[in-house]
Design a protein that fits this description.
Elements lengths: L1 E2 L2 E2 L2 H19 L8 H17 L5 H14 L5 H17 L4
Antiparallel strand pairs: 1-2
């Protein structure tokens, strides 16, 4: 399904659902045990944008990058995690892994 320049497949619906659930958790003040709600929401939105703009991404490598990035958000600041995500994504694109 195309929405402007974005292409959403059925796999991206899980990212949209995660973004909606994280937004609801942030709105109602629900706690996520170890994670920061705003950091996770930021990461999910960034992943949704990159996955939506580049539909030819290999899902396995992108999944590994997403899981590592989410677990790094436990220990690092938002800036460091976003920097890691973009640099890793750029290196994966240069090396044609993704």
């Amino acid at each position: 399904m195309y929405i402007g320049p974005f292409y959403f497949d059925t796999k991206e619906l899980f990212l949209v659902l995660a973004a909606v659930l994280l937004a609801l958790a942030s709105f109602f003040g629900w706690s996520l045990w170890w994670f920061d709600r705003r950091t996770l929401l930021t990461l999910v939105i960034l992943m949704l944008i990159t996955k939506g703009l580049l539909p030819s991404i290999h899902n396995e490598a992108f999944f590994i990058l997403a899981v590592v990035t989410i677990f790094l958000s436990l220990y690092l600041s938002v800036f460091q995690v976003v920097l890691f995500y973009f640099l890793s994504f750029l290196m994966f694109r240069i090396m044609k892994v993704i």
